[in-house]
């Protein structure tokens, strides 16, 4: 009897070690066709003007974006990437909780935004998602599940644009990404499991930076490459530490570069400048003013920094393929 008990104890010991060493993990991502809820964070490339707290209609399967009416208030003169992703390239009916805010940086204390009332990524997570959308305080019509929800981030454009001339990319970008992934970990602690991170696009090719000369073009390009490389590293580390998570980095640089390098293929007649009469938006997505020479949606850039809706559509189309 003693021998049997001893053997059984030994088996338990081996099982314990085996479990600790080879503990299986079960990724919660079951494919794009099974995602019915999107939580979105970012800046003007992503914002739709959604207001979570003013009593306006909230997102639902029958009203994807809630408020304001689709496509919302975007910087694209039409739908932006998240608008296209959830309406043109979705596989099922989705609700989109878009907390992105124009001008956002990761943390306003690290990189000051253009206005004091801009909601940083830190604000979007800590002051909007956590108190209003995390369980159990989420609205009654939002019964999101980890395996059917996707958390998407497109942030960093303003962080780099407002800091690249300072140099010291290695140390400063580490500070930015430390804070970025503190916030990602906060979301993970609240039940988020599926994450998509869009890299910062090559905005050194925007009219804003082209107009500042070679030094700015070169150094913002170097800063963007540094930030994006570190983003990939941080995602890998996050994945290692959180084996129940599913992560994907979507690189936007090839999408932008291909359209900028082959404009005719994508229907663009101008990829280096913009028309002043279009820059604040137009009555229609394809408005034509004679003084601008071509319709607004044949410009890659609506203004000095923001691409038009066809650029966003291509980003969404390629992202959907990955998902």
Overview of this structure, please?
- Residues 1-20 form the signal peptide.
- GO terms for molecular function: hydrolase activity, acting on ester bonds.
- Keywords: Signal.
- With 323 residues, the protein is α/β, with parallel strands linked by helices.
- The protein has a domain at 30-252: Rossmann fold, CATH 3.40.50.
- It is built from nine helices and five strands, in the order αβαβαβααβααβαα.
- It has helices at residues 2-21, 81-87, 121-133, 157-161, 169-189, 207-210, 214-241, 253-261, 309-322, and strands spanning 37-42, 95-98, 149-154, 194-198, 246-250.
- Strands 2-1-3-4-5 form a five-stranded parallel β-sheet, with helices on one face.
- Helix 2 (81-87) links the parallel strand 1 (37-42) and strand 2.
- Helix 2 (81-87) packs across helix 9, helix 3 (121-133) runs parallel beside helix 5 (169-189) and helix 5 runs parallel beside helix 7 (214-241).
- The longest helix has 28 residues, at 214-241.
- The protein is globular and about 55 Å long.
- It starts with a helix and ends with a helix.
- The model is unreliable at 1-24 (pLDDT under 50).
Q: Which labels suit this protein?
A:
single chain; disordered N terminus; alpha/beta; 323 residues; 9 helices; Rossmann fold
> Residue share in helices?
25-40%
Tell me the β content.
Answer: 5-15%
Mean pLDDT: 91
- Could you name the CATH topology of the domain at 30-252? Rossmann fold
- Based on Cα principal axes, name the global outline: globular
Order of strands across the widest beta sheet? Answer: 2-1-3-4-5
Q: Helix/strand/pairing class, anyone? A: alpha/beta
